[in-house]
Amino acid sequence: MAFVLIALYLAIQATRSLNSSSHPRATAFGIAEAAASLLLLPFLAGAKYTLARRLGSRALRADSLLTWSGTALSGAALIALVLRRALGWWWADPVAALAIAVVLVDQGRRTLRTLPALSPAP
What is the Cα–Cα distance from 15 to 95, expressed in whole angstroms? Predict the structure, then answer.
């Protein structure tokens, strides 16, 4: 469910940004932050996933997938910020956000399909 909610948020914000007449600058700090996230989040996601397998924790496994989604968002943000700064492509970030939203909806759909069906209590 979290995947779908994040996807919905991204889609709304991206649409607002594409329809807006004001577009924020791509700062060096923003680029550095996205790059740092892109470097660190895969290690965190991998560690969570490994621990989830050892513990048999579906909740921690789902959290590791959310962290991988954060990695994808960081990568998309980094590319978009560099394109904005280098080429003036203000629309790159919202378009990247829409692409990530599509991936998150698909991941959410697959995650919901693997959940056990809730049965009524006896």
Answer: 9
Residues 11, 19: Cα–Cα separation, whole Å: 12
Split at pLDDT 50, 70, 90, the class of 49 is very high
Measured CA distances, 99 to 55, 69, 85, 110 (Å): 33, 12, 20, 17
pTM, 2 dp = 0.70
User: What was the pLDDT predicted at 118?
Assistant: 46
Contact (Cβ atoms closer than 8 angstroms) between residue 43 and residue 64: no
Element (H, E) at 91: none
Q: Give DSSP secondary structure letters for 3-65.
A: HHHHHHHHHHHHHHHHH-S------HHHHHHHHHHHHHHHHHHHHHHHHHHHHT-HHHHHHHH
